[in-house]
């Protein structure tokens, strides 16, 4: 017969193994639904940013929350679509013009005429094409293979965008009912405190969105001034692309700089060099001065916390982490302040 100590040991081992297996199963489940979790997180971010506008519209002008929510979301998506049209339409026109002139460019390159032919000779592309013809043909064949994957990725992006929009709409629409349910579940005093926490978190997200838009407008405006002064064609469109790309913390200015510098180099080497120098200097100012200062006032975080949060989140979660780092840090600060952490620590010592 086994002793009580042996049975107790077996029970403890079984409990530990069960906890380990449950943890692994939970992590595997989270990994399997990670895409949906990202959609929900982005939807919550969008809902928190638009909820104050819906509340204000409902209090002042529209009584029904359904109508107020619909109007705010339509206005937001109309603004996004308008900005996208301002960027996409000129780019599509330019691509169409380039496609129409492609045969002419090819004839000029083969005949050794024009600036494009000089550029091809200067960087050695003609010699490389002549000596690596079969390799280039193989690369072209490989590029045709992932076309189905690109189409599938584009469809998934469209489905994800629609899903995030619908989730955010429902979150904003149902927020009063969720608040009422929270009050009924936790009691008036605790529920009112959590509702206050929710409003503070929404204010943090709204402040982040506002601060990010201000920084992007500054970047786009300065880019337009520099490009227009250098005589680069379509300076306004390029500056708009730069402003939209700059919405992404840390790396956004670099993405916009690549687009602007490429257009400037196509205009002239001098314009390209000046543009590169401008963006190198501006990105340092934005990352280490403008963004920390503006975000510290918009989200009420000190500049050091803003910079450290973005750097750590970008390293851990990439682009999504960089986008959500500052509002996440602001929400964490609200939660810690609401929990009255110094009082809890003092009670723990006692």
Overview of this protein structure:
Helix 8 (188-230) runs antiparallel to helix 12 (303-339). This protein has two domains: 35-186, no CATH class; 188-344, no CATH class. It has helices at residues 4-32, 34-60, 65-111, 114-122, 125-131, 133-144, 147-186, 188-230, 235-245, 252-267, 269-299, 303-339, 341-349. It contains 13 helices and no strands. The two termini are 47 Å apart. It is an all-alpha fold and 350 residues long. Helices cover 91% and strands 0% of the residues. The chain crosses the membrane at residues 12-30, 36-54, 66-92, 153-173, 213-244, 250-282, 303-336. One of its GO terms (biological process) is transmembrane transport. Belongs to the autoinducer-2 exporter (AI-2E) (TC 2.A.86) family.
SSE inventory with pairings:
Layout: H1 4-32, H2 34-60, H3 65-111, H4 114-122, H5 125-131, H6 133-144, H7 147-186, H8 188-230, H9 235-245, H10 252-267, H11 269-299, H12 303-339, H13 341-349
Helix pairs in contact: 2-3, 2-7, 2-8, 3-4, 3-9, 7-8, 8-9, 8-11, 8-12, 9-10, 10-11, 11-12
In short:
The chain has 350 residues and is mainly alpha-helical. It contains 13 helices and no strands.
Helix content: over 70%
Number of domains: 2
- Major beta-sheet overview: none
Number of helical segments with 4 or more residues = 13
Which key phrases capture this entry?
350 residues; mainly alpha; 2 domains; globular
């Amino acid at each position: 017969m086994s002793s009580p100590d042996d049975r107790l040991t077996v029970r403890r081992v079984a409990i530990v193994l069960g906890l380990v297996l449950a943890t692994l199963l939970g992590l595997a489940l989270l990994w399997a639904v990670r895409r949906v979790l990202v959609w929900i997180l982005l939807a919550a971010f969008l809902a928190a940013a638009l909820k104050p506008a819906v509340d204000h519209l409902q209090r002042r002008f529209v009584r029904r929350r359904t109508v107020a929510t619909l109007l705010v979301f339509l206005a937001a998506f109309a603004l996004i679509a308008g900005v996208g049209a301002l960027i996409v339409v000129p780019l599509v026109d330019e691509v169409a013009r380039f496609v129409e002139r492609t045969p002419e460019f090819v004839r000029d390159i083969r005949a050794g005429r024009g600036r494009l032919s000089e550029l091809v000779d200067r960087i050695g592309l003609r010699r490389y094409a002549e000596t690596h013809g079969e390799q280039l043909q193989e690369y072209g064949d490989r590029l045709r293979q992932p076309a189905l994957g690109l189409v599938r990725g584009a469809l998934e992006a469209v489905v994800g965008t629609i899903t995030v929009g619908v989730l955010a709409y429902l979150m904003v629409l149902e927020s009063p009912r969720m608040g009422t349910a929270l009050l009924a579940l936790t009691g008036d005093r605790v529920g009112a405190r959590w509702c206050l926490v929710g409003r503070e978190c929404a204010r943090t997200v709204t402040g982040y969105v506002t601060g990010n838009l201000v920084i992007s407008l500054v970047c786009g405006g300065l880019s337009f001034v520099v490009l227009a002064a250098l005589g680069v064609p379509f300076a306004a469109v390029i500056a708009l692309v730069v402003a939209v790309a700059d919405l992404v913390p840390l790396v956004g200015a670099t993405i916009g700089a690549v687009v602007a510098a490429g257009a400037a180099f196509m205009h002239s080497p001098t314009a390209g060099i000046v543009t590169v120098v401008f963006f190198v200097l501006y990105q340092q100012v934005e990352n280490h001065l403008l963004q920390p200062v503006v975000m510290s006032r918009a989200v009420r975080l000190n500049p050091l916390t803003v910079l450290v949060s973005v750097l750590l989140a970008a390293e851990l979660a990439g682009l999504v982490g960089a986008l959500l780092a500052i509002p996440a840090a602001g929400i964490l600060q609200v939660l810690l302040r609401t929990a009255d952490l110094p009082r809890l620590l003092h009670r723990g010592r006692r």
